[in-house]
């Protein structure tokens, strides 16, 4: 049974991505009691699924490791994974939260030795790799990723009640598997709430003309991050999902589902930078044989990112075409996606009138899909002010509920972390006021 010790001076953080972790650690390190509730079996959020960060092209694992160490060392911070907040009652300084915790079927005795994973036979698509999950499946007993915090295996609920669950239990030398674990509901007090549930990739299936649902060699930018990662489904090789052929000639389509009233209204800002970064992955993989073509409306490389953009632009292996791609069709003989549209700047290059139509084939197409806030107003456990793009507003009527990171806007990691630190400060002020009135 999970026991949560909390008072109305406790800060509840919902979502354990880089923003939630930052807010929780900043508050806990000032001496506040913090409870962090994370839906998935591990903290770190979507940055754990990125290969490298722009602009420095360093690995996200680096910063995450530091945060995970800070979290382990801080007795003020309680992390509950596989959990969601189902209700929040009360007001600033005096909330009661209800949290539903799903069974992990593995307890704290787990050493992550992996014996259970080796013992089970069942395999499932690996959700960590988004839509490429079928290329490298995971077992029914699994560690979500190598750097997962907590370093504890999880049993897929689909194997519970099968022989595989029993095999996993028998394989564990540490008595860490508990097949009797049940869903739990816990209730505890909190003075302030930080909502840091981040973003989800826009559903590319909804952009019908691009055929993501029909063509294997049209993938999304989040999938491309997984593909480029040596720990990903292709071992870091840029290969076509349809036939495993090397993908050397790659097109990137910007604003796929963003800045469009039929999809996401807002500019996700990150996707331009993500594509510029991903052209580096192509170069690193194939050298001069790797060719990237970026189809864009305009490139949004804000502030200090302009230098990064200019460097990519200077690379002769990266071509930029100003055009909103109209549709993608398929060359059925070789599986190549064909991009169709109009190059609105062609007159600048050839001096011949311009607005040339193109139908160009590539090995692989990457859709630079946008970031959709994972805030669902309908099921939100407390009244909250949300803007028309779906992000939480910094509104006084939200009382002691503050948004951190991408729950507040489409942000890169640096900005998300800064914003989360600000949210921690606001939450601390609320619980300090409670302490002041009670003390
Ligand atoms: C293709 C792509 C590439 C990118 N590359 C870079 C890059 O190179 N450099 C960079 O700076 N930025 C990059 N970004 C942006 C970066 O991913 C975000 O800035 C970062 O993920 C924001 O972190 P977050 O904690 O706000 O959100 P998330 O990472 O989304 O974390 C939110 C957490 O909340 C949890 N959660 C969600 N709902 C609930 C719930 N109801 N209850 C409990 N928990 C919940 C989630 O499981 C998750 O752990 C990229 C984005 C994209 C799309
Ligand atoms: S549950 Fe047991 S067998 Fe599986 S990884 Fe943990 S300690 Fe090893």
Automatic annotation (TrEMBL):
One of its GO terms (molecular function) is oxidoreductase activity. InterPro entries: FAD/NAD-bd_sf, HdrA-like. Coiled coil: none annotated. Gene3D superfamilies: FAD/NAD(P)-binding domain. Keywords: 4Fe-4S, Iron, Iron-sulfur, Metal-binding, Oxidoreductase. It holds the Pfam family FAD_oxidored. This is CoB--CoM heterodisulfide reductase iron-sulfur subunit A family protein. The lineage of its organism: Bacteria, Pseudomonadati, Pseudomonadota, Gammaproteobacteria, Chromatiales.
